[in-house]
Hints:
This protein is an all-alpha fold.
Amino acid sequence: MLGAIAGDIAGSVYEGWPTKRKDVPLFGPDATFTDDTVLTVAVADALLGARDYVQAIRSYARRHPHRGYGGGFRQWMAASDPKPYYSFGNGSAMRVSPVAFACDSKQEVLREAQCSAECTHNHLEGIKGAQAAALATYLARIGADKESIRAEIAGRFEYDLARTVDEIRPVYVFDVTCQGSVPEAIIAFLDSTDYEDAIRNAISLGGDSDTQACIAGGIAEAYYKTIPDDILRQVRKRLSADLWSKTVEFYRQFGTEATLAQLGHLDAG
């Protein structure tokens, strides 16, 4: 979850000014959390049992209204009786990482990912994107190697994961659909050497950088088991108090002792 949030913040600057480089600043003065982070924390809140997905997502979005939501989502957020709007945008995949940390089986991950998606993104591709991102993160969390993750996601969801970041980068263009951005975000993780390299890979595609770094970062956190302290400090500095406190609460229930110790050190500092 923190891996996804850090990826969102790092990629936020490059969504409007895409880059094909990896050696770019990750946390410049304009780096900030976007709708990806807000809705990730909303999903975490729902998983903690405070409310259902519709209530949680609408509550957090209304509390943080100017964070880059799409037009369809804004209408849903404001509706008196919100209904899913058949979206296949990558908003379903960007917010799903907490599911992979809260669930304890493939079946539970797939079911919960669908539930978290379909309150807004009830198109097959929207659900599939959320399930693929969540399952890749879950498999990484339980110790699967990269080739096993690649094979499972490619086989189950029919995503082309045989490409490399270097092959994708020169021809890739901005794409906010699940089918046009989630496979590439997963590849950004698969081609990485560590957590930071995963989010740099995602940003360097030159696409929907905050969301793709969010997805890749969530998987990378689960796989590499740690996020560098300097990156976590940047997250802590930029998150609002309510988002940080709910994130810490989520880790108290579903996180590792090592990560909790890191978070405690940040708060103490």
